[in-house]
Amino acid sequence: MLFRRPSPVRFFPLAAACTLLSMPLASSAGASQEVVIDAMRFAPQTIEARVGDEIVWNNRDFFPHTIVADHGEFASEPIAPGGAWRLHAEHRGVFPYTCGLHPTMHGVLVVN
């Protein structure tokens, strides 16, 4: 497996605000990149990150979604509406991914 797969994180608005306020803005391990899931699409559709960065998929849609790399490098559990899933980029490459529950939803993670 090329990536560590943390367990899914589910947020409620107040808990999310408290968590975000208690987190450092940056760390020596890398930056944080965000992908928003909304209206049955990933935004941005292509996300660029560096090795060591954390990529966070935030589900703002009304439906659960999953993040599944097309070639098996990573896969999330279902992300509930209002929930998030985090991935730490450990290897360079181009990783196309799909929502396993909605196969018309596609994105690309580029790790430099």
Automatic annotation (TrEMBL):
Keywords: Signal
Major location (coarse): periplasm
Protein location: Periplasm
Keyword Signal among UniProt keywords: yes
Domain EfeO-type cupredoxin-like: 15-111
SUPFAM superfamilies per the UniProt record, alphabetical: Cupredoxins (SSF49503)
GO cellular component: periplasmic space
UniProt cross-references to Pfam families, sorted A to Z: Cupredoxin_1
InterPro entries with a match to the protein in the record: Cupredoxin, EfeO_Cupredoxin, ET_Amicyanin
Signal peptide: 1-31
PANTHER family assigned to the protein according to its UniProt record, in alphabetical order: BLL1555 PROTEIN (PTHR36507:SF1)
Name this polypeptide is given: Cupredoxin domain-containing protein
